[in-house]
Please model this.
Amino acid sequence: MPVNPSSSEPAPIALLKTSESDQLLRIRHSMSHVLAMAVQRLFPRAQVTIGPWTESGFYYDFDNPDPFTEADLKAIKKEMGKIIGRRLPLERIEVSRSEAEVRIKAQNEPYKLEILAGISEPITLYTLGEEWWDLCAGPHVANTSELNPKAFDLESVAGAYWRGDETKAQLQRIYGTAWETAEQLAEHKRRKEEAKRRDHRRLGTDLNLFSIEDEAGAGLVFWHPRGARMRLLIEDFWRQAHFTAGYELLYTPHVADISLWKTSGHLDFYAESMFGPMQVDERKYQLKPMNCPFHVLTYANTLRSYRELPIRWAELGTVYRYERPGVMHGLMRVRGFTQDDAHVFCLPEQISDEILRILDLTEEILSTFDFKTYEINLSTRPEKSIGEDDVWELATQGLIEALDRKGWAYKIDEGGGAFYGPKIDLKIEDAIGRMWQCSTIQLDFNLPERFALEYVAADGSRKRPIMIHRAIFGSLERFFGIMTEHYAGDFPFWLAPEQLRLLPVTDEVMPYAKQLLDQLKAAGIRATLDNSGERLGKLIRNGEQMKIPLLGVIGAKEVETESVSLRSRREGDLGTLTVAKLLVAACAATANRDGTLALPAMQTPIP
Model:
């Protein structure tokens, strides 16, 4: 294992994504073919569909009469090893459409016929030895000898619908992973176990933060008192940061007449992700999937002057979107969620300054939650788009200028912008190196046009404002899930739903413990008292299981000296501290949003 020259610690093993490595792409694409060949050798009635690579591995979808079991996966993996050991060549062959049809019909593979119908010529296929082939554009390794039999694994089986359509055949998807070395595979497995330990769904239950109740419906979040306390802390911080940054807050309805969504274009482009309308007083109302049209109507309520711009409005607005049952996942994909939406209405010449302000605010908010490494993409005008060339050019240059002024590195995604304007997307890196799509900044020339937004220019003419969409968290629910996994549920002191739990050793010290609890609560500290009567060891274990930052042990000595013996979840035994010093330190850490308390001279005797 390579060693970092500046340290005696082994250098971390880098795990590249498939999109970052041509060799991994060839390995994983080839492994998917080896998987399919192995399955069809062991299960002759299995029909193959598609088998692409993923960012950390590969999968193949099969139509097999019987469900695959764990024992089947082991047998398939063993067969894959045999195929690799045969050093079979992977060869590209170009055929006519009619020849491909003859080959497919001879195999009785109806899914391949449907795939073939959607492929443009030239038709290419890849053979694996002389026994197996599939329609494929590649790329692949030249020979299975390039695949490391000790650097791959089959990870799971899941259900999948053909073409992602639940009205079509249900298939079985086998997921696998493949690397160049056995060490990379071991590191991948270690990270997967760490991700499992941090899973926000399990932590949400263990720490009693939230739940999703089947009786109420799928994808709807119930915030429990502990989670609701944390959400309030996040929201209060978010609001204050926006006030300081020059925003005003809006509150807008959850439903609107369906005509609003016709005007905005959502019914034309977004209908499949919207819930159906409801009939009220002979009018149809629609649950909102977006907050944008409501902010637009608020702007249009009054004729604006150029002197009023920029206008910055923000809202923690709950929206509702139809997500298919197969894609919902804890807090990450739900049907009702709160977006931290904001919209800026500005003049064209104000774009760069406003984008820079948004980038500064984004960094301030995300870094408070210890997200400090970002991946940034700037997406430019696609082929199909609306708006004048000069406005697109001005807007795109405004984004580039703001990013350059901020000093952030970024990649340009040519043609990857929305049809209504260019955008900046920001991913955040969590504690175990995963990247999460989070913040987005989008310029919009569409809604101002659809709603005929105007401002009175300096020369008295009427002009369209530039509209900037912006979200920093993306949604509170998803961000909460990401944050929970980032901290592994061990939240910093300022954010913890329960900051300090008092542990009385005997019933005799209970009056003092209750008095101390009242003092802590009066000072704004989120403190509780465990009066269960358990032994001290059990009290401490219970507190540690709930990941409470501080435990305060109270015995006769603490009553006599008006103090508390503190135990930190992160630093262990901290010694004894007077109540006065504890209050000062806890209040300061909460106000400053610190991860831990600054407690100087903790081990010294009480004065």
